[in-house]
Amino acid sequence: MVEQLEGRVGVITGAASGIGAAMARRFSRAGMKLVLADIEPEPLKKVADELRASGTEVEAVPTDVSVGAQVDALAEAAEAAFGKVHLLCNNAGVGSGGLIAQLGEDDWSWVLGVNLWGVIHGLRAFLPRMMAHGEPAHVVNTASVAGLMAAPFMGPYNASKFAVVAISETLYHEMGLTGSKVGVSVLCPGWVNTRIHESSRNRPGGGPSGLEGGGMLAAVLASGLPPEKVAEEVHSAVVENRLYILTHPEMTAGIETRMKAIVAGQNPQVGLGELLANRQEQ
Ligand SMILES: NC(=O)c1ccc[n+]([C@@H]2O[C@H](COP(=O)([O-])OP(=O)(O)OC[C@H]3O[C@@H](n4cnc5c(N)ncnc54)[C@H](O)[C@@H]3O)[C@@H](O)[C@H]2O)c1
Asked: Which of 157, 162, 172, 191 is catalytic?
């Protein structure tokens, strides 16, 4: 359990924007040395420069988390810069939309490549090192409330986030069983005010994300939680060693309804409409 963050080393992916940038700012305030990774070099440099100006030791490492060799290189770069890594936030992610019946192989492989393989590569590259150094450490995987409820039009996204929840819970058990000092958290937010609706900006080959023209989604996101609030919750969960980070209490009823329906053998009742309605009632 990482109670003491000051002077420790954190690695955050997807740190150039939204939730990742907010986590970088929060852990910078906690006195950590930071290695920030993102596929967008310029915005990444901006966040790194901002934190450096505030006195934080920062290394910016442009990285495509869907490429295993690049995440291995990130782990090497982090160790070369600051030594042992104590906090890993596998946060980089992209959003997408569309009916499953109309999606192509590329649609699936892009989203699963970033959101699922990015987390897998992060664990593969960093976890053995974090376990070997023996000091308290923590992994935060960014999933979503979409990892706990399967709303329509979000097949690849939901699949990636359900998998990240499953991996995180599995890892939690394994770290406990092996007496490891690595804690695990999985972040499951609802709507957060970020640029996720503009995810196609990072799609290789410039293909669509299925969220284009999504004025409604942009409006829903704009009414979502500020990323700083989410980062605050992440900070608390790390120091308190909590697995599940649910940042949107208005959505927990939907999760409960789904779980109850599953064990009762009933068909699901929660869809995207209900998720949106829940938020707008706030
Ligand atoms: N915004 C929300 O409502 C919301 C809700 C639940 C979960 N999430 C999750 O939060 C995480 C952060 O997203 P956000 O909302 O801050 O969006 P964002 O678009 O503002 O930030 C995502 C960051 O990930 C980076 N990225 C994209 N592809 C990458 C790749 N291949 N390699 C490295 N970096 C890459 C982007 O450049 C960007 O800086 C994602 O995993 C997302 O699924 C977001």
From this structure: 157
Per-residue pLDDT of 119-168, as tens digits, reads 999 999 999 999 999 999 999 999 999 999 999 999 999 999 999 999 99
CA 93 to CA 236: how far, in whole Å?
22
Buried b (16+ CB within 10 A) or exposed e, 42-51: eebeebbeeb
Contact 61, 38 (CB under 8 A): no
| Beta bridge partner(s), residue 184 | 139
Please give the full DSSP string across 17-38, using - where no structure is assigned.
Answer: SHHHHHHHHHHHHTT-EEEEEE
Ligand 1 atom closest to Cα of 145?
6
- For residue 157, indicate whether it is catalytic: yes
Question: How many helices (H) does the chain have, and how many strands (E)?
Answer: 10, 7
Tokens of 83: 């030594």
